[in-house]
Amino acid sequence: MRLTYSSGKKNKIHISIDGEYRFTVDADFWFSLGIYQNSELDEAELAALEEAVYTRRAFNKGIGFLSRRAHSKKELIEKISKTSEKKYAIIAVTELEQRGYVNDADFAAEYYDYLQRVKHFGKRRIATELYKKGIDKDIVAMLEMENESDPQAEIRALLEGKFASKLYDEKARRRTVNALLRLGYNYSDIRPVMEEYTTGI
Asked: What domain range is 111 assigned to?
């Protein structure tokens, strides 16, 4: 099979096999491959070229996602896989991880802080959200030890802030308890603090 290529717009290279267009790549990547005009390729060489091209596309998509915010490895693979084959997404994200662009431990620490400080999630809900992102249970356990907190103090802060106006009757108090449970706090911590704020109401 004979490979030919031609220059396109914006630093693009169009690749054809036996005169039929096959795919487009960026020029820097293409010339790094060292493949010459009118090269003869066998099936194995063409398959290797396709893998390199599609992995490159997946890699570039990953860089695009990471330029907006940090991602866990699992999350990034899932996002890239929406428009690329999963096998190429896995290869690309593994390379990004090897280059230091993806680090689950760093991502988890940053995300833990956000969920605790901004979202006011309790320990149980934070762990659930981290597991959804594919974070290993050992990393979660380490972060829980590093971020030990007083759940009852956190509940008091919420009752004095976000839920301050939601303690006026029994129905409102039940909704508040349910909201705190959804945030990941245990009922054994919620009950005594709620009693502090509702006694005499």
From this structure: 103-149
**Contact (CB, 8 A) for 107 and 71:** yes
Query: How many residues are present in the chain?
Result: 201
Q: What pLDDT is recorded for position 62?
A: 97
- How far from the centroid of its chain's Cα atoms is residue 97's Cα? 13
Instruction: Report the Cα 37 to chain-centroid distance in Å.
Output: 40
The tokens describing 159, both together, are: 């009752």
Question: Has residue 200 got a pLDDT over 50?
Answer: no
DSSP 120: -
Q: What is the pLDDT of residues 121-141, one digit of tens each?
A: 999 999 999 999 999 999 999
For position 57, which CATH number holds?
Answer: 1.10.10.10
- Domain boundary (82, 98, 114) is at 98
Cβ 45 vs Cβ 80: under 8 Å: no
Instruction: Judge if 132 and 68 occupy the same domain.
Output: no
- Upper half-sphere CA count for residue 91 (Cβ side, 13 Å): 13
Contact of 29 with 62, CB cutoff 8 Å:
no
**Residues 126-179 pLDDT 10s:** 999 999 999 999 999 999 999 988 999 999 999 999 898 888 888 888 999 999
The reply to whether 46 and 93 lie within a common domain is yes
What pTM value is reported for the model? 0.81
- In angstroms, the CA 107 to CA 29 distance is 29
